[in-house]
Amino acid sequence: QVQLVESGGGLVQPGGSLRLSCAASGSIYSLYPIPMAWYRQAPGAQRELVAKITTGGTTTYADSVKGRFTISRDNAKNTVYLQMDTLKPEDTAVYYCNAWPARSYWGQGTQVTVSS
């Protein structure tokens, strides 16, 4: 049974930081490391790619978060992280992790709200 459990979201003021975690298990996630990514979906908007990381650690970021967010992974723990610094109100969204390219199963995500 596939499980993608995102955590670490919350309410933060503009300019603040959060660190998200994603524990992946089941199916392909438990067999061997695969490329992973963080996605987000703001109210009324489509889900978008935020950052992705290969099994070797090569990273790619959306232009809107480049220089502020850092994706990392711990293959031994099947866990992916997203360090988010200098947060802006437009970063408010539900954040999800998934494989890259995304597979059909999605977890429930973690809410990030940036507001003063």
Which strand order does the major sheet show? Answer: 2-10-9-4-5-6
Number of helices: 1
Structural class: mainly beta
* Largest sheet report: 6 strands, mixed
Give the strand content: over 45%
Specify the helix fraction band: under 10%
Terminal-residue CA separation: 40 Å
The rounded Rg comes to 13 Å
Mean pLDDT comes to 94
**Topology, number of strands:** 10
**Low-confidence parts, pLDDT < 50 over ≥5 residues?**
none
Q: Based on Cα principal axes, name the global outline.
A: globular
Tell me what you see in this structure.
- By secondary structure, the chain is mainly beta.
- Helices cover 4% and strands 47% of the residues.
- It contains one helix and ten strands.
- A six-stranded mixed beta sheet has the order 2-10-9-4-5-6, with no helix packed on it.
- The longest helix has 5 residues, at 27-31.
- It is globular.
- The model has no long low-confidence stretch (mean pLDDT 94).
Briefly summarize what is shown:
The chain is built from 1 helix and 10 strands, in the order βββαβββββββ. The mean pLDDT is 94. With 116 residues, the chain is mainly beta.
